[in-house]
Amino acid sequence: MEKGTISMDFVAEALLVARQRGLDIAALVAGTGLSPELLAIPQARVSPEQYGALWHALADALNDEFFGMDSHPMRRGSFAILCHALLDCPTVGRAIERALRFFALVLDDLSGQLRVDGARAEVVLADRGPPGRLFAHGTLFVVLYGVACWLGGRRLPLMEVNFCQPSPPNLAEYRLVFGNTLHFGAAASALALDARLLGLPVIRDAAALRLFLRQAPANFLVKYRSQAGDVARIRGLLSERPLAEWPSFEALAGALHTTPSTLRRRLEREGSSFQVIKDDLRRDMAIDLLCNTTRSVDDIGFALGFSEHSAFYRAFRRWTGASPGEYRGKTAGFAG
Q1: CA 294 to CA 314: how far, in whole Å?
Q2: For residue 85, with 0-12 CB atoms within 10 Å meaning exposed, 13-18 middle and 19 or more buried, which class applies?
Q3: Dist. CA 282–CA 286, nearest whole Å
Q4: CB neighbours (10 Å) of residue 29?
Q5: Burial class (CB in 10 A: 0-12, 13-18, 19+), 158
Q6: What is the pLDDT of residues 131-140, one digit of tens each?
Q7: What is the CATH T-level fold of the domain 230-330, as seen in this structure?
Q8: Is the pTM of this model over 0.85?
Q9: What 3-state DSSP class applies to 246?
Q10: Which end of the chain has fewer CB atoms surrounding its CB within 10 Å, N or C?
Q11: What is the pLDDT of residue 335?
Q12: Which of 29, 70, 67, 68 is nearest to 50 (CA)?
């Protein structure tokens, strides 16, 4: 199963208000697997478990599960209460509506509405004042969408995601989360899906919720990422196979019922290539193995297809800005 990672850009966004309020960041991240040294490496990546640990640390420090991004804090424990309140909803659509009413009660600056127009359903966000941060809108979408997918027991394919904010420098990271049908500078931030999905039954119970809450938010941060687009589709295909069985580009194109030249152009339109997809997946696998196992660096490099330690060292430094040993040292003491 694929182990995705999360950009340091999103870590910096999550920490922004804490920094502005003068909190001791080194003390805040202690025990999360994120050292101040790692935070200083812009191209570094973190595991969902590390980001989830940071989520809880920030919520504790700020007594706010929305990271201080709203003028009214979302007090610690609000997410658990929300999830309990959704369990007796008959359908995913009803759960989304109830969740949006909940957010309207606990947040002052940001609210949302579920709109259905024929075959299209949209969760549309509205700011009660100046436009909010892109990260605030994105975080609300990730939480709402992740919980909705969990309640329905499946990924809910996204038709389109729009943000009212301008396109960010880390556009590729937002595409990784929300898919390729992503637009910025829209009239309103909106997450669209097939309206028929609203009728899916809620299949979770109290016992499942207890496990879900123990593992949240790490258990939904990357699990329900959009699978739309060729980049996500190819990444999914590769993650299902041992690295030694990854196909050639020509074989992959055949499996996708297209030609290599056509597939290459499609990947270029998504700002990627077959080599970039493979490198990103190997990077995420390396980070997972370094953070969550005791395997030696040489063993990890060999498992990822590097015949020489120096080749793995160079590749990992190019991917993350640190050597494998340095990276493991900066995340020491954390087990996801």
Answers
A1: 21
A2: middle
A3: 6
A4: 23
A5: buried
A6: 899 999 999 9
A7: Arc Repressor Mutant, subunit A (1.10.10)
A8: no
A9: coil
A10: N
A11: 47
A12: 29
Amino acid occupying residue 157:
P
What DSSP designation does 201 have? B
CA distance 274 to 114: 37
Residue type, 127: D
Q: What angle do CA 322, 324, 325 make, to 5 degrees?
A: 100
pLDDT-derived band at 222 (thresholds 50, 70, 90) equals low
Domain residue spans of the chain: 77-221, 230-330
Spatial CB neighbours of 263, under 8 Å, sequence gap ≥ 6: 230, 249, 252, 253, 256
Rounded distance between C-alpha atoms, residue 245 and residue 238, angstroms: 9
Two tokens at 215? 């593992």
Rounded CA separation 126/283 (Å):
37
How large is the C-alpha radius of gyration of the chain? 20
Q: Judging by DSSP bridges, how do beta strands 190-194 and 120-127 pair with one another?
A: antiparallel
74-82's contacts with Cβ under 8 Å and 24+ in sequence apart are: 74/106, 74/107, 75/106, 78/106, 79/143, 79/213, 79/216, 80/213, 82/147
β-pairing verdict for 158-163 and 182-184 = parallel
Q: Cα separation of 177 and 181, whole Å?
A: 11
Burial (Cβ within 10 Å: 0-12, 13-18, ≥19) of residue 284: buried
pLDDT of 223: 67
